[in-house]
Amino acid sequence: MPVAKTKAKTQSAKSSKTPVYKNFIGGKWVASKTGETFENRNPADWREVVGVFQKSDARDVDDAVNAAADAYKEWRLVPAPKRAEILYKVGERLIHERERISQEMTREMGKILKETRGDTQEAIDMSYYMAGEGRRQFGHTTPSELKNKFQMSVRQPMGVCGMITPWNFPIAIPSWKIMPALVCGNTIVIKPATDTPLSVANFMKVLDECGIPPGVVNMVTGSGRNVGEPLINHNEVKLVSFTGSTEVGRTVSSLCGPSFKHSCLEMGGKNAQIVMDDADLDLALEGALWGGFGTTGQRCTATSRVIIHKKIYKKFVDAYVERAQKIKVGNGLNEKIEMGPAVNEGQLKTVEEYVKIGQKDDGAKLLCGGNRLERGDLKHGWFHEPTVFGDVHHKMRIAQEEIFGPVVSLIPVSTFEEAIEVCNGIAYGLSASIYTRDVNKAFTAMRDVYTGIFYVNAPTIGAEVHLPFGGTKATGNGHREAGQAALDVFSEWKAIYVDFSGSLQKAQIED
């Protein structure tokens, strides 16, 4: 999980005008039991404090979980269509709040306004989609092998769900978890990333205003150690939904294991775009640039590898590097900017370290970028140049490990079969894509690339809420978010048998 924003090199910017945000527990905004707070700073200008948030601990988690457990007793009995009506209102409200929420998201996370507006739109889309699922939580009826016997399967809610969300999609990813959990009849305690608590606080406010009963949704801010671990370990929490790094996800899984607590883990990615020699190169170029440098490369689905057929390798690389060098980097609130900062100094240092690894350890060819940007006002933020390595061997560390920054590896291959092998030759299996005009190659790649998401003639980013989201291998533990698949995460199946024969009937037993 990305480190919290460092306060190094900053001065205290607290003032009476700096907003102070509290935890949301039992329908009320309350201060933490610790009495301590932390600052949330703008990564584009660390001199600006976006807000002050509660530095909570296990006592606050306990209060939130208890509130959720109490609320569950009534919320689970609210008919699903009625629960869904509230979700629909949330979507309507988010439309009216979209610009404000997006502006504040850019201030706390850094990505450009076009992207934060899209982030908020995902929450809107998920609200509407899951509102529809209030009338579509279908089970099954089947004929029995016995006379005068009826049988069916139904979904049932799980109880209190603990949610730990990342900073790169500060309202979209919480909506992927919260909305299906609510429509299934669960209650929630969410710990937002310490880099982006404001977006989740804004979401809580909207949910509250739209009529979610007290205690059904709760938010506790603070660190992973002081809030995340107590939330995972709490006996009343029946499921933990986590999005973050594979390393932290492994810890979450190990903590849930002893008590057989359900966990849904969405973790890392090292995604590849294959560009064949028959591809529309202009289209492939646009896709690779957007996939590689959108959100400053800070997406689990980012196109951090581009696998290119040798016949068009030089032509593609020359154009890619030329375009990458022209990307406008700066404060995302400026509508002309195309790429914002890293989310914090720690993430920026990680990018700088991988640039050194690519050059010194891997021996890859640095084609452009590679440096922190400190000119003018950029010196007050965590900015890095769009960075491209060429002639990368697929076994190099920069081609194998998730960097989570604006660093792309260009990998030459000789055949379609080699492209598939290189694409699959990593620990992760989240997203991949292919650019080709050959329908046979497209369908073969769809079949043979082992990922949870696959695109044809599109970049590795751009998932929509009505299809399942998630990956294979070290990317996750088999569950999926979004779409109908999310209902399987936040509900459990119950098989029901009704015997109206008036006699004892023994299934599978011959008298």
How does this model look, in words?
Residues 1-14 have low confidence and may be disordered. This protein folds into two domains: 23-267 and 476-494, Aldehyde Dehydrogenase, Chain A, domain 1, CATH 3.40.605.10; 271-456, 3-Layer(aba) Sandwich (Aldehyde Dehydrogenase, Chain A, domain 2), CATH 3.40.309.10. It starts with 22 loop residues before the first strand and ends in a 12-residue tail after the last strand. 52% of the residues are buried. A hairpin with a 2-residue loop joins strand 1 (23-25) and strand 2 (28-30). It contains 14 helices and 23 strands. It is globular. The chain has a seven-stranded mixed sheet, with helices on both faces. A five-stranded parallel sheet has the order 9-8-7-10-11, sandwiched between helices. It has a three-stranded antiparallel sheet with strand order 5-6-23. It has helices at residues 58-75, 80-109, 113-133, 172-183, 197-209, 224-233, 246-256, 281-293, 313-325, 345-361, 397-400, 416-424, 439-448, 485-489; strands at residues 23-25, 28-30, 37-42, 45-54, 140-143, 149-157, 160-164, 187-191, 217-219, 237-243, 262-266, 271-275, 303-309, 365-368, 372-373, 383-384, 387-390, 407-413, 428-429, 431-435, 453-456, 472-473, 491-499. With 511 residues, the chain is an alpha/beta fold.
